[in-house]
Specification:
Layout: H1 2-9, H2 11-24, H3 41-57, H4 62-68, H5 73-97, H6 99-168, H7 172-181, H8 187-205, H9 207-211, H10 215-243, H11 251-257, H12 263-272, H13 275-305, E1 310-311, E2 345-346, H14 374-379, H15 386-412, H16 416-436, H17 443-462, H18 469-495, H19 511-527, H20 533-554, H21 560-584, H22 592-634, H23 640-675, H24 680-704, H25 708-716, H26 720-734
């Protein structure tokens, strides 16, 4: 209304300007005559903007009509006042019509105010109660923490007090069990003994015990129980140890099934027995040492009664008659005596079988076999070689020492006890070996002892036991020098061989040669899986000695051919034995030293065989062979005079050959058969016939390369197929 009045009073002066503003939509920046519009320019601009917005929204156009002059302002005001009054009258009527409802609404609002006020009071009470409850909770939390600390302290004190009482209180059950009511070997006694051990350790080492007044009352009682327990345990163990001394007692079963269960008893003595433990320990050591010594003494003596007669100095390669020249190598053996009771040197100097290994090598495959039971073997009248006696002794030593070592380690908790217990038994076995060594001349026995000892040491290493390492080393230090001394003795016997040992009437294999062949075969078989260089070196030295002896023996033959025949027979005999050893080896286990020795003797055999073959052929076909060599050497077929001379000689040779060639072949056959033994004879005869055919073929070739007359002689000569047929007939007779 105020706005309309202001607009009416100024409508005349601004009518034109407003109309222009509304029509053009542009602000007017001019100034009225009285200067009053200058400040209202901004207001008019904002008004114009509002009018345009009202127009855009589709609002009431009355104000715009008034401002634009289309409607009179007073008329618009009057219409608005009438409209307002009319609306006011309607509103008052509507209000009067709704008085009851408004009054009812007013009543409900007052009731709501009352209810909300009561609710506010209740909530206020709740808030105050919650505040009090929070305070009580904080107080309870504080009290709970205090009680928790007190409970923890009480429990700690209770645990410490209970532990103290547990280790200091002496219950009647313990006193009764230890002082005589209980069996020392029972589990109940062992449990009480463990409990007593704990109490004694507590009193001795815990600092709380030193501050406790009650200790003065408890300590004397614990000491009395300790003394009583030590006494009863001592008597019990000494009684158990005494049962080990009884004859025919299986002490290993007692150790495993009885003593091992009482480890707690011996531990108690170790901790609280003092000198009593030393007495018990000494008693066990003394008892078991004597038991083992008696056991091994009886066992070794029984085995030695089963000992087979062993090779003596007579079985050296050159025989017994040369022993005096090298007896210094065996200082402990005298003539006609044995260095050890039970070992008897047999005189088998003429038996090469003494050097054959036979089934003796199987001992290396039967190392895990149980030791022999002497009375069973004696009942079967068995005789054992020394290597089997050694294997049985050492196998028993290994098994017994393993059991004793494990028991001593578990029972006494240390290994020194085992060393003291088993020293005597080990010394008996070592003494047996020490005494037996000077009486052993058989290198196979010595080498088998070395191999068995080495394999047994490997078995103990697989068990992670080193308790017998010193014993194994001592045996090796005894056996290796003895084996070297035996090899040296064989070599010396060869070097000093003389007299009848070097004289033979037959060109066949000599006894020394047979012995060496069997010895070499046996040694190489035993050394196949081990490839011991010093063994191979020793055999090379002996082989050289044998070759020298064979050459000396061959020199005793006055005929050159017989010397070669003797060497061929002996070299071939050696090869036959060595090749049999080679075929017995597996493909994976070839012995290089054996193969080298075979190659060496093959070369010697070939060289000497060629000499013998040449000598035999020269004796039967000397003219023909000499002719061939002469013609081939001269190599001058163009000389007419020489050709005539050669042709004449060739014609004479062919005439003689045609008459006697069959008889000559037969003579060669008989000579070879009479001179060489099988299979050497067949090989030599084959070489003779082969070489003869080569010479005859070369003879014919010289004729064929000559003049026509010589070629005619070649056509008239005995044909090679005829000779081959005859040779084949004799070869088949040998086969």
């Amino acid at each position: 209304r105020a706005f309309m009045e202001t607009t009416t009073s100024a409508s005349t002066s601004m009518d034109v300007d407003v109309r222009m503003l509304l029509e053009d939509g542009e602000a007017w920046d001019g100034e009225g005559e009285d200067g009053t519009w200058k400040d209202g320019v901004g207001t008019l601009r904002r008004l114009a903007t509002s009018l345009r917005a009202n127009r855009t929204r589709g609002g009431d156009p009355t104000l715009e009509d008034v401002l634009s002059g289309r409607t009179d302002a007073r008329t618009a005001i009057e219409d608005a006042e009438e409209n307002l009054k009319e609306r006011e009258t309607k509103a008052v009527g509507a209000f009067c019509a709704s008085v009851d409802e408004l009054e009812a609404l007013h009543g409900r609002l007052r009731e709501c105010d009352v209810a909300l006020s009561a609710m506010e009071d209740v909530l206020g009470g709740f808030q105050q109660s919650l505040g009090n409850l929070s305070s009580e909770i904080r107080q309870l939390q504080s009290q709970s923490h205090v009680m928790s600390v007190q409970l923890k302290n009480r429990r700690l004190a209770e645990a410490q007090l209970a532990d103290f009482l547990k280790h200091t209180a002496v219950p009647p059950a313990m006193v009764g069990e230890i002082t005589g009511k209980g069996d020392v070997g029972s589990d109940a006694f062992a449990a009480q003994l463990r409990s007593l051990h704990g109490k004694l350790e507590f009193v001795k080492g815990d600092p709380r015990a030193g501050r406790a007044v009650a200790l003065g009352d408890v300590e004397p009682e614990l000491e009395k129980l300790r003394i009583k327990a030590v006494s009863r345990v001592r008597d019990y163990l000494m009684h158990k140890f005494s049962t080990l001394r009884k004859p025919k007692t299986n002490f290993q079963i007692i150790q495993q099934n009885v003593l091992r269960k009482h480890i707690d008893l011996i531990r108690f003595l170790q901790e609280h027995g003092g000198e009593v433990f030393g007495e018990v320990h000494a008693s066990y050591v003394d008892t078991m040492s004597k038991v083992y010594m008696a056991h091994f003494h009886n066992y070794t003596a029984a085995l030695m009664r089963l000992l087979k007669e062993t090779a003596g100095p007579q079985t050296l390669l050159a025989g017994e008659e040369h022993r005096g020249a090298f007896s210094g190598l065996f200082t402990s053996v005298g003539k006609g005596s044995s260095a050890m009771p039970g070992i008897v040197a047999t005189d088998n100097s003429n038996a090469p079988e003494a050097y054959q290994i036979g089934a003796r090598g199987e001992i290396l495959e039967e190392l895990d076999a149980p030791p022999r039971i002497p009375h069973v073997a004696e009942a079967k009248k068995e005789k054992l070689p020394y290597e089997e006696v050694f294997r049985c002794m050492q196998k028993l030593l290994m098994e017994t020492s393993t059991s004793e070592f494990v028991f001593c380690t578990d029972f006494f908790g240390e290994t020194k006890t085992y060393s003291r217990v088993f020293a005597g038994a080990t010394s008996i076995v070592e003494e047996n070996v020490t005494t037996a060594m000077p009486s052993l001349y058989d290198p196979m026995t010595l080498l088998l002892v070395i191999r068995v000892n080495s394999q047994h040491q490997s078995v103990m290493l697989d068990r992670s036991l080193h308790c017998l390492d010193t014993h194994f080393d001592r045996v090796a230090m005894l056996a290796w020098p003895r084996l070297k001394a035996v090899f040296d003795a064989h070599l010396v016997s060869l070097r000093q061989a003389q007299g009848s040992a070097l004289v033979t009437k037959h060109p066949g294999p000599h006894l020394i040669n047979k012995r060496f062949a069997e010895l070499a075969k046996s040694i190489f078989i035993l050394n196949t899986k081990f490839d011991d260089a010093q063994i191979d070196h020793s055999m090379d030295r002996i082989s050289g000695g044998v070759c020298n002896v064979l050459l000396r023996i061959a020199g005793t033959f006055k005929v050159k051919r017989m010397q070669m025949v003797f060497l061929v027979n002996n070299y071939d005999a050696i090869l036959g034995v060595l090749r049999s050893a080679s075929t017995e080896e597996s493909i994976e286990q070839k012995n290089d030293a054996l193969l080298k020795m075979i190659e060496y003797y093959e070369e010697l055999l070939k060289t000497n065989t060629d000499v013998v073959v040449e000598d035999i052929l020269m004796g039967r076909f000397g003219g023909l062979i000499s002719y061939v060599k002469k013609v081939e050497k001269s190599n001058n077929l163009e000389s007419t005079r020489g050709a005539k001379a050669d042709e004449a000689e060739a014609q004479r040779l062919l005439a003689d050959f045609s008459k006697v060639w069959k008889q000559s072949i037969d003579a060669v056959y008989r000579e070879v058969v009479a001179t060489f033994q099988e299979p050497t004879g067949y090989a030599v005869l084959k070489s003779v016939f082969t070489q003869f055919l080569l010479y005859y073929t070369r003879f014919l070739d010289t004729l064929k390369r000559g003049p026509p007359s010589s070629q005619e002689l070649a056509k008239k000569a005995v044909m090679i197929p005829s000779i081959m047929y005859e040779i084949k007939r004799y070869s088949q007779a040998l086969e």
